[in-house]
Write a structure and sequence with these properties.
It is a single chain. This protein has three helices and 39 strands. The strands form nine sheets. The chain has a six-stranded antiparallel β-sheet. Strands 7-8-9-10-14 form a five-stranded mixed β-sheet, with no helix packed on it. The protein has a domain of 39 residues. Strand 17 and strand 18 form a beta hairpin. By secondary structure, the protein is mostly beta strands.
Length: 461
């Protein structure tokens, strides 16, 4: 099997060099897929990455391994953590959401209600509800106030067109679990369906107090929903389909932009007829980041320029020109003290937000940066790339701590910046390992810097 990979033309190549050794690992191109999103829970126990695949990679930092969450029948489009527990929720092109118990790496609950692909989902800040947006033109609010979710009455089943007849026969008005004979899943039926958009929904967000949801649609409108009343408070008609809409940290202002647009639009929830605009430049906006502490927004464009906007003053207060190519990821730390950016030039930049002075910059990937996430303590930064890996970088100096590969055949490899590695049992059949250009095999790993439990050791778990 290893000889087969030797003759493949396309490889992802990872090389680590020190004075005493040089470790090289070649992974077949067919097994590597771009990382599109990363999330981490508030205790740093779990790192979860998503690609445009059916399977989600779950890195358990305490157990120092990777597990693969399998339950969707089509590509996973969006993932989110409930930071008050060890649960993850995912939305897929199979029209479903899945609530995952990460301790057991298993499906806890399946949410069926949408009739078309999922584009976005968000946990409320309270962690008690989830909202999801779909191509079926609806926004659904799912009640998670109790974790042993109960079925709704059969009279509410009319909107759930994708539910099988066998499942419907199990539903009664007695608030019992719906058991699936094929597994231990419990299928949730009690949802609030909000309709009114005339085209697919691509983006949504909760206000800081969870009282309102904003949704953006390809019908060129933004809707503001009252969560408690489950009704549309207002509709804003725009001149183009909306790409992204987000609330600012004050929970009153919200911002949006359209595909191909170079103008950021700012609105006030209490004065919807008042529109403020800021032109970023001549290039289209590619990403926005919301500072969770103060009312500022970072906006990146196709040229690599980033501007910091003071929402209250409605003006640009800083311009950052460190990146030389399109911005694909912008992320503030949870305390608002740091801003990270990455994109097409493969570099990551981190600024202190007090004066927006550059703290560090580094290049730990071989392809575009797609996503960024800070560790809760701001010690490390997670980055996901088109090169198929998740990298954990030290924010004090930009050094690569770990590079994590979750492969399409459900094998994994973890590589340290100094050349040590750990991997799943069958990973040697998915990659070729070299030391100083000499191939070595699994039965000789211990002589070549193989270290079991490497992830936990390096993260001091």
């Amino acid at each position: 099997m290893l000889k087969f990979f030797n003759i493949l033309i396309l490889f992802f190549l990872i090389i680590f060099t020190e004075s005493s050794y040089s470790i090289e690992i070649r992974i077949a191109d067919s097994l590597v897929v771009a990382v599109e999103d990363i999330v981490i829970n508030n205790t740093s126990d779990f790192i979860v990455s998503r690609s445009y695949e059916k399977i989600i990679a779950l890195w358990d930092t305490d157990k120092s391994n990777c597990k693969f969450l399998q339950g969707h029948s089509a590509e996973v489009k969006t993932i989110a953590f409930n930071n008050f527990s060890k649960y993850l929720i995912s939305g897929s092109w199979d029209n479903t959401l899945i609530l995952w118990d990460l301790e057991s790496a298993s499906v806890r609950k399946v949410f069926r209600g949408h009739t078309n692909i999922l584009n976005d989902l968000k946990f409320a800040h309270s962690g008690k509800i989830v909202a999801s947006a779909s191509d079926d033109r609806s926004l659904i609010i799912w009640d998670l106030s109790i974790y042993n979710l109960m079925a709704s009455k059969s009279s509410q089943m009319g909107t759930n067109q994708n539910i099988s007849q066998a499942e419907k026969s199990l539903i009664s008005s007695s608030n019992q679990f719906i058991k699936l004979s094929s597994s231990d899943e419990k299928v949730f039926r009690e949802e609030t369906v909000l309709t009114g958009h005339k085209n697919s929904l691509g983006s949504l967000d909760f206000s800081a107090d969870d009282k309102f949801i904003i949704s953006a649609s390809n019908d060129k409108s933004i809707k503001i929903w009252d969560v408690e009343k489950a009704m549309c408070k207002a509709t804003i008609v725009c001149d183009k389909p909306i790409a992204i809409v987000k609330f600012c940290s004050d929970g009153i202002h919200f911002v949006n932009f359209s595909n191909g647009d170079s103008v950021l639009r700012i609105r006030n929830l209490n004065q919807l007829d008042s529109l403020k605009t800021i032109k970023i430049g001549s290039n289209k906006i590619t990403e926005i980041g919301i500072n969770p502490v103060n009312n500022t927004v970072a906006v990146g464009d196709k040229s690599g320029k980033i501007v910091i906007i003071d929402i209250d003053k409605n003006q640009i207060i800083h311009t950052l020109n460190d990146s030389q190519d399109g911005i694909r990821a912008l992320e503030f730390s949870a305390d608002g003290k740091l801003l990270a950016a990455g994109g097409r030039d493969k570099r990551i930049f981190v600024w202190n937000t007090e004066k927006y002075e550059l703290k560090t910059s580094f290049s730990n990937h071989s392809n575009f940066i797609n996503c960024l996430t800070f560790f809760p303590d701001n010690k490390y930064l997670l980055s996901g790339s088109k090169d198929g890996s998740v990298v954990i970088s030290d924010l004090s100096n930009g050094d690569k701590i770990l590079q994590l590969y979750s492969l399409k055949n459900n094998e994994w490899i973890a590589l340290s910046g100094d050349g040590r590695f750990d991997c799943s049992e069958n990973a040697p059949y998915s990659a070729v390992f070299y030391d100083k250009s000499i191939e070595f095999k699994a039965d000789d790993f211990t002589s070549h810097n193989f270290e079991k439990g490497l992830i936990k050791k390096l993260l001091n778990k």
